[in-house]
From TrEMBL:
Protein name listed in UniProt: Glutathione-dependent formaldehyde-activating GFA
Protein family per UniProt: Belongs to the Gfa family.
Pfam name, any one: GFA
Statement: the UniProt record of this protein carries the keyword tRNA processing: no
InterPro entries to which the protein is assigned, alphabetical: CENP-V/GFA, Mss4-like_sf
Residue ranges annotated for the CENP-V/GFA domain, each copy included: 3-111
SUPFAM superfamilies, per database record: Mss4-like (SSF51316)
Keyword field contains Lipoprotein: no
Superkingdom field: Bacteria
MF-aspect GO terms: carbon-sulfur lyase activity; metal ion binding
Key words of the record: Lyase, Metal-binding, Zinc
Length: 132
């Protein structure tokens, strides 16, 4: 099974194979700002599961204080969407913005993070793991 994630303008894409190593919803302030939504979906694959990357990206560095790691975030030079990133504490993984798989399949997350920052009106399926 392969999955392709794309930015809004389709200039950049990333194609991965297999199942994610981790697929989580993060409720922190930064993920809200990154996505412009109530939470971010972070879908992590092994770096060797990446089949293809295309298009021009720029990178900005972010210290994710809630997660205590640094991220290198790759975003589209045209539409600005952050499509994928690497994190300092898990160099063997690549994070992909889960909602950007919307042309193929947005995979259901298995757990939620930073629930103390969760919007009051959001609730998640009861079978998901909750990690404060
Ligand atoms: Zn774009
Ligand atoms: Zn977050």
């Amino acid at each position: 099974m392969t999955f392709e994630a794309t930015c809004c303008c389709k200039q950049i894409s990333i194609t991965v194979s297999g199942k994610p190593e981790m697929n989580s919803v993060c409720n922190c302030t930064n993920c809200k700002q990154r996505t412009g939504s109530a939470f971010g979906i972070s879908t992590y694959f092994k770096t060797d599961a990446v089949l293809n990357k295309s298009g021009d990206t720029k990178i900005y560095k972010l210290w994710h204080k809630e997660q205590n790691h640094e991220q290198n975030r790759h975003f589209c030079t045209q539409c600005g969407i952050t499509l994928y990133w690497t994190i300092s504490t898990m160099p063997h993984l690549i994070g992909v913005a889960g909602g950007c798989f919307s042309d193929s399949e947005v995979l259901e997350p298995t757990h939620t993070l930073n629930n103390s920052s969760k919007c009051q009106w959001v609730s998640f399926p009861s079978n998901w793991q909750v990690q404060e």
